[in-house]
Amino acid sequence: MPQLNPGPWFLIMVLSWLIFLFILQPKSLSFMSSNSPSNKTNPTFQSSPWLWPWT
């Protein structure tokens, strides 16, 4: 069964992971994110208590 022979496919897998780790990943991580976090505070809402008619 040829799929059990790891000879040619193991080298292809190792080389593809090395290319990903050392070439593609640093290039993709170097892009700036378009939505940078801000120090905006959430507004606080003043709520009044509910006035129940039967109390």
From TrEMBL:
<keyword id="KW-0138">CF(0)</keyword>
<keyword id="KW-0813">Transport</keyword>
<protein>
    <recommendedName>
        <fullName>ATP synthase complex subunit 8</fullName>
    </recommendedName>
</protein>
<comment type="similarity">
    <text>Belongs to the ATPase protein 8 family.</text>
</comment>
<dbReference type="GO" id="GO:0015986">
    <property type="term" value="P:proton motive force-driven ATP synthesis"/>
</dbReference>
<keyword id="KW-0812">Transmembrane</keyword>
<dbReference type="GO" id="GO:0015078">
    <property type="term" value="F:proton transmembrane transporter activity"/>
</dbReference>
<dbReference type="InterPro" id="IPR050635">
    <property type="entry name" value="ATPase_protein_8"/>
</dbReference>
<feature type="transmembrane region" description="Helical">
    <location>
        <begin position="6"/>
        <end position="24"/>
    </location>
</feature>
<dbReference type="Pfam" id="PF00895">
    <property type="entry name" value="ATP-synt_8"/>
</dbReference>
<dbReference type="GO" id="GO:0031966">
    <property type="term" value="C:mitochondrial membrane"/>
</dbReference>
<keyword id="KW-0375">Hydrogen ion transport</keyword>
<keyword id="KW-1133">Transmembrane helix</keyword>
<keyword id="KW-0406">Ion transport</keyword>
<keyword id="KW-0496">Mitochondrion</keyword>
<keyword id="KW-0066">ATP synthesis</keyword>
<dbReference type="InterPro" id="IPR001421">
    <property type="entry name" value="ATP8_metazoa"/>
</dbReference>
<dbReference type="GO" id="GO:0045259">
    <property type="term" value="C:proton-transporting ATP synthase complex"/>
</dbReference>
<keyword id="KW-0472">Membrane</keyword>
